[in-house]
């Protein structure tokens, strides 16, 4: 198992992760998560496993106080179902009163060499906006900003910069002197994204929750440290289980075969699902006799994390597999049908969301 | 003698400086400088002593082609007569067709600890604009931008960042790992200022001349290097003799007693001038007998660099001093009178220039 800010490899022991990163398990909060569980399968199914200071957000929800939800995207690749989970969380918090802020880090794309020009990265970021909105965000409570274009980002980064040192950035991100200076500064920019909702020109000091991959927890730690120095409220965070790659390993935007992308053609989706790694037994006979293993099945993850809202339906799928009553071929076909239905409806929503881009864009 | 990007100390041997910095003497260009000499005492009196690629600008002037003049200010201190020389050069180039661009580096002020907040530095930068304009810039051919607020700066810096390394920045600026990351990134921001006029959204690729202190030549070298990598035209530069501090040493914005500031009260100006270091002999008797030394006289510098446009009048002052006919007390009084006349008229011009701020501000 290796998790750092650059990579996630191998099978992940999430209990070990909680210890190593110093985050907290959500288990003791169980009694306070009812509202979130009602509206979000990610909470209901224990997919959110860890957090920092989530109590502060739960307090705000209870007291109906202002809070922000922030989750960012690097526009280096199109959105896949792994990315969707962050938006799904944002939507859940939004339904409970949170104002959603979404930074699109075109600068990150470019300084880390994932686009040939900044302009290209910026355009990709613009194009992402309707695709993000279409997942179900309420445009009246959503602000999306493009890092290199939003007037608040660089000035806030400058403010933060004086509260840290190059050594700190180096220690967190592991950059070398042969790296470009933009990579180092991007460490500060990302902290600025996280604290942006709290500036006077926007929401002022409010609790902010950041659904984020556990591998990016060091960024949260930096942002929390800087928040304290600037008299901002330390941001909270939540972490969820990673979706696995379709053929095992990590799901990644840069490995096309590892994920279903939200703009994949249905023919591609079908091929990807039909070739996905399952929890099925080696032969149909064995499968029928001994049953499959849905916990290890990537196809089941698509049901559990995305496609099956109804808990009883999910349980049925689970048990049918476990008891060998559901074979992988049929199951994959069902998964594809659900995906196709979702993606076709999503496509229409993206078209409709294009009119709302200007409304949510924070310039 | 010590000149680096942080300090200028001791008596400066400008021939040595030319060699050490690898800039070129303006002497061989003499025949091409007639137009500049006609309109600028800085050229006429040999105060501009060195350059990089000035021929490119002289070509543009001759061919009546588009070119830019860029000179920046750190709003950490009010403007003094040393700063005025950069504007005077910009005005001269502007009269010959150049478009003037002036970055005000509020980010620099803040990351280097010269203001308590970025906001304070930004406000200081805004307040500088009428003070710069009032020196005689044509607002139709002038753009002034505040570094943290101008939408083109950070994106260009990001573009440049990928063309260099942290080692390069460290080698030029000498920062340490214990410094804040904003200092390192500011090295790139300053290069972005210099190349900004050449972006597609503004002038496109045009020759740019940067009047700059020789101590800041390393910034020009970095900008020239990055320009080449980005297919921009390598910026040209000019360097002029530094004005000395009123009591010897370097004139500096942070040493109030070293300079006349353009917003000093006349009572302060009088006191500063009356206490200034002169080239006078130790006693009036000796002065009358052996004469003074205007070359070593700070008061004479104010006449030569700023207050006496007419060459014959300047020569008269020079010879009167040299021949002991002009004594320091009278000479200082005359200098003060000229300063007072200049500063009172300037004050009115600053008031009038306030209406033109919006016109020149590049946001």
Which tags fit this structure?
homodimer; about 375 residues; alpha/beta; 7-stranded mixed β-sheet; two-stranded antiparallel ribbon
Q: What does this molecule look like?
A:
Two copies of one chain form a homodimer. The first copy, chain A, is α/β, with parallel strands linked by helices. In chain A, 49% of the residues lie in helices and 9% in strands. Chain A has 17 helices and nine strands. Chain A has helices spanning 14-21, 34-39, 41-44, 54-62, 81-95, 106-111, 118-133, 153-161, 166-173, 181-195, 217-229, 266-274, 284-290, 298-307, 311-322, 328-353, 357-360, and strands at 2-3, 8-9, 24-25, 48-52, 68-70, 99-104, 142-146, 208-211, 236-240. In chain A, helix 11 links the parallel strand 8 and strand 9 (236-240).
Q: What's the short story on this structure?
A:
The structure is a homodimer of 363-residue chains. The first copy, chain A, has helices at 14-21, 34-39, 41-44, 54-62, 81-95, 106-111, 118-133, 153-161, 166-173, 181-195, 217-229, 266-274, 284-290, 298-307, 311-322, 328-353, 357-360, and strands at 2-3, 8-9, 24-25, 48-52, 68-70, 99-104, 142-146, 208-211, 236-240.
Termini separation of chain A comes to 40 Å
Describe the main β-sheet of chain A briefly. Answer: 7 strands, mixed
Q: H/E element string of chain A?
A: EEHEHHEHEHEHHEHHHEHEHHHHHH
Oligomer: homodimer
Helix content of chain A: 40-55%
* Strand order of the biggest β-sheet of chain A: 3-4-9-8-5-6-7
Q: How does the helix and strand content of chain A classify structurally?
A: alpha/beta
Biggest interface reads: A-B, 38 and 38 residues
* Rg calc of chain A: 21 Å
**Number of β-strand runs of chain A:** 9
Shape of chain A: globular
Spans where pLDDT lies below 50 across 5 or more residues of chain A: none
Kindly estimate the percentage of residues of chain A that lie in beta strands according to DSSP.
5-15%
Count every helix of chain A, treating DSSP H or I runs of 4 or more residues as helices: 17
Chain-averaged pLDDT of chain A: 95
